[in-house]
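Q: I'm a student working through a structural biology exercise. My instructor gave each of us a protein and asked us to get a predicted structure, then write a short paragraph describing it. Mine is Cytochrome c-552. I'm not confident about reading structure output yet, so if you can add a plain explanation after the C-alpha cells, that would really help. Here is the sequence I was given:
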Amino acid sequence: MGYYAWQIGKPMQGGDSRSVAIQPAINSENVATLIDGGAIYSIQCSACHQATGQGIPGAFPPLAGSEWVLADSAILVSILQDGLQGPIVVAGNTYNGVMPYFRGKLSSAEIAAVLTYIRSEWGNNADRIDPIMVDEHKTRFGERVPWTSDELIAEFGKP
Ligand code: HEC
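A: Happy to help. First, here is the predicted structure for Cytochrome c-552. I'll explain a few features afterward.
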C-alpha cells in the first residue's frame, strides 16, 4: 500500500536519473495508469470474488463474464463507491448478499484503476474507467446508502 502513496503523491526520487523536467505530469488523466489495479484487486476484492474472478457459488458473484462489470461504467462506479445489497442476478444466478462500499477507503484514482482491471481481466473486454467518472459520481450522489440492483437499473438502465 505504501507503494501507491509513494507513486501518487511524489515525483520520482532516488534511483531515477531522469530530470524533473522530462517527467510526465501526474494528473487525473494518467494517474490511474500509474496505479496497479491488479494489486488493489488482490488486496481489496479477491477474498470474496477470488483471484480467478469466478466468485464463490451461492455467496460471492463472479466478475468474469458478469454483465454488471461490462455494463455502463456509472453502474460499476456506483457499486464500488456506495456498496450493493439485496438480490442481484449475475450471469443467470441470483445472489443476495452485502458488498461493502469503498468510499473513503480507496481514492478516485484507485477505484478507477481496480475497475479498469476487472473490465480487462479473465476475458472481460470493456472500456477503461477514468477517475473523473468517480469524481462526477461523488458530486452527483454524495454519501448515499448501498444500492440495490433494482435501483441501479432504474437509474442507469439494464446492464
Ligand atoms: C466482503 C466481500 C466482498 C468484497 C471484499 C468485495 N465484494 Fe464485490 N460483491 C460482494 C457481494 C456479496 C456482491 C453481491 C451483493 C448483492 O448480493 O447485492 C458483490 C457484487 C459485486 C459486483 C456486482 C455483481 C457482479 O458480480 O458483477 C461487482 C462489480 C463487484 N462486487 C466488484 C467488487 C470489487 C471490484 C471489489 C474490490 C474493490 C469488491 N467487489 C469487493 C462481495 C464483496
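A: Here are two points you could use in your paragraph. The first helix runs from residue 2 to 9. Residues 80 and 101 are 6 Å apart (CA to CA). It's a good idea to check both against the output above yourself.
Q: Great, thank you!
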